[in-house]
Specification:
single chain, about 550 residues, mainly beta, Immunoglobulin-like, 8-stranded antiparallel beta sheet, 7-stranded antiparallel beta sheet, 1 helix, about 0% helix, globular
């Protein structure tokens, strides 16, 4: 149940959008013992998946061998779910990736490499063909967890936790005490611009940050039992652990600090800017306290979204809970809708509404509007025990990445106890709201005895039933193509280019309509063939 935590809030009388969704494709990559995809992002008319692997793997018809213990892997998928490119990154040592960022189709990745006991963290950049553009490496001593990377036109922004010394050119960032949070600004050439460090007796870790248009930084970090000292901020003390959201101006003067204290356990998850302020996601059990507000977990672990306004004041929250276990892992926004993914056991609940129920671990995908109202939910078709890890969301589609495991035994912490063989999955869903009107062209609906259809049918020497009607729209199409037939069946949809090369295929069981995202396809002529065990038909489409 939602509670308002401002003195006043103007409530808009809008209708919650109901979303229809169509799983366009579902990929499950081969199961290898040390193959792990950790994140995905939009890139070059498609998506890039980032992970690591060891030994030899084969993905999308491409075979890769690691040079050392582990290498980094980059996979480029188009919007049809086809692997267009894949490369491995690594040398003789152990190379681990931690984060990446896409700026104008230049891909930046950061991680760590270890060789002969020497540790370095790296920042590499690549173009759309995965040609390497830059190679920055920085030695460090001690422990370094590089969780965050964002890129602006003149700066590289990084954060995480550290204990030890990081050497950047002629300068050093040093923390010799406990493992504490850090944030650094680098120039594109790798020179240190500024740094921000925490101190105290507890363990601290920066989980997410936002650099706002006015130059302010909003930092979200975990704080362990003990004290937390941040620049230009009074010392904080935690009896257990907590989450802190700190707002700084461009001169690192503190403007606002929100503290979440918990009687049990709380962890930061994500922080996004939705144009109206910042939305944070966190997980907790027990009782969570924010100022005069308290939150209680209905199960062993629950999740929470909180919207802060432009001044850093909380204005609404929404709970994602379970009677057993629920954990949020990723939050994304397109400035109109906030989409979350993670996993749960038992009943998944939003605003006291039960969305789904499972005994095994299952992925959830839930959306809210900018006033915190529940918008839509996709019931993920999981394989065994699955866990959504990262997503890419735009106005009409969601690409979801995660892992699935064959064993589902759960310990008291809600973690499946299995071997370390994980299958990586990537799912693509096309979304369409109820108030979205389909605009069709009279020429987009034809019977299979029309002239254009006759031309394509002669090439296949097929005989079609006269009563089969295939409708595609819009045609010409720019991004998402809608198709429908006048009768439900188990259809196989195939997409061919003008040379007759099969680009993708998908099965639809007992359906008579669907969607196909063609935004990654070059402009030109394409043919869609729709077939069942009894009938088949074709449509020629134009991609702009």
């Amino acid at each position: 149940m939602k509670r308002i935590i401002l003195f006043f809030l103007f409530v808009l009388s809008t209708v919650t959008a109901k979303a229809q969704f169509e799983p366009q494709w579902q990929l499950v990559f081969p199961e290898y013992e040390d193959f792990n995809i950790t994140a995905t992002t939009a890139f070059a008319d498609g998506y890039v998946l980032l992970g690591s692997f060891a030994d030899t793997i084969r993905v999308g018809g491409i075979t890769m061998c690691s040079h050392g213990k582990h290498d980094v892997i980059l996979l480029h998928l188009d919007t049809l779910g086809v692997v267009r490119n894949a490369i491995s990154i690594g040398k003789e040592g152990d190379d681990r990736v931690s984060a990446f960022f896409n700026l104008n189709d230049t891909l930046y990745i950061c991680g760590q490499t270890t060789l002969d006991g020497l540790n370095k963290f790296f920042i590499y950049s690549y173009d759309v063909s995965f040609n390497q553009l830059s190679d920055l490496t920085f030695p460090f001593e001690g422990k370094l967890q590089m969780d965050l990377l964002k890129v602006e036109h003149d700066k590289l922004l990084l954060g995480g936790s550290m204990k030890g010394t990081v050497t950047i050119g002629s300068q050093s960032v040093i923390n010799k005490s406990d493992e504490h949070a850090f944030f650094i600004e680098l120039s594109q050439e790798g020179e240190l611009v500024s740094s921000w460090l925490t101190f105290g007796s507890g363990l601290h870790r920066l989980y997410s940050f936002v650099h706002k248009g006015n130059g302010d930084y909003v930092l979200m970090l975990n704080a362990g039992k003990g004290t937390l000292d941040m620049p230009d901020t009074p010392s904080l003390a935690f009896k257990g652990n907590g989450v802190v959201v700190a707002n700084y101006d461009s001169g690192w003067n503190n403007k606002k600090c929100s503290v979440f204290d918990c009687t049990g356990f709380v962890e930061a998850t994500d922080l996004v800017d939705n144009g109206q302020g910042c939305v944070i996601g966190l997980n907790y059990n027990g009782t969570l306290i924010l100022g005069e507000q308290t939150f209680s977990s209905p199960g062993s672990f629950s999740s929470l979204l909180i919207q802060f306004d432009l001044e850093g004041r909380p204005i609404w929250y929404s709970e994602i809970g379970s009677d057993d276990y629920c954990r949020l892992l990723n939050v994304e926004t397109n400035d109109e809708t906030i989409v979350c993914t993670g996993y749960h056991y038992g009943k998944l609940m939003v605003e006291d509404e039960v969305l789904e129920e499972t005994i095994d671990r299952n992925t959830f995908l839930v959306a809210f509007d900018n006033e915190g109202r529940f918008s839509w939910h996709i019931d993920i078709e999981g394989i065994d025990a699955d866990m959504g890890r990262s997503l890419v969301y735009d106005h009409n589609s969601v690409m979801l990445n995660g892992i699935c495991q064959s064993a589902t035994t759960k310990n008291t912490s809600g973690i499946a106890t299995v071997n370390n063989k994980n299958s990586t999955f990537a799912h693509k869903y096309i979304l369409k709201t109820d108030n979205e009107k389909d605009i069709t062209d009279e020429d987009s609906s034809i019977k299979e005895n029309d002239n254009l259809s006759d031309i394509t049918n002669q090439a296949n020497n097929s005989i079609l039933e006269d009563n089969l009607l295939i409708d595609v729209f819009p045609n010409p199409v720019k991004n998402v193509l809608h198709w429908s037939t006048n009768q439900p069946s188990d259809w196989m949809l195939e997409l061919f280019d003008a040379k007759g090369v099969l680009l993708t295929q998908k099965c639809y069981n007992n359906r008579q309509e669907g969607y196909l995202d063609l935004s990654s396809c070059p402009a030109g002529l394409y043919i869609i063939r729709i077939s069942s065990s009894e009938k088949q038909g074709h449509r020629v489409i134009i991609k702009n």
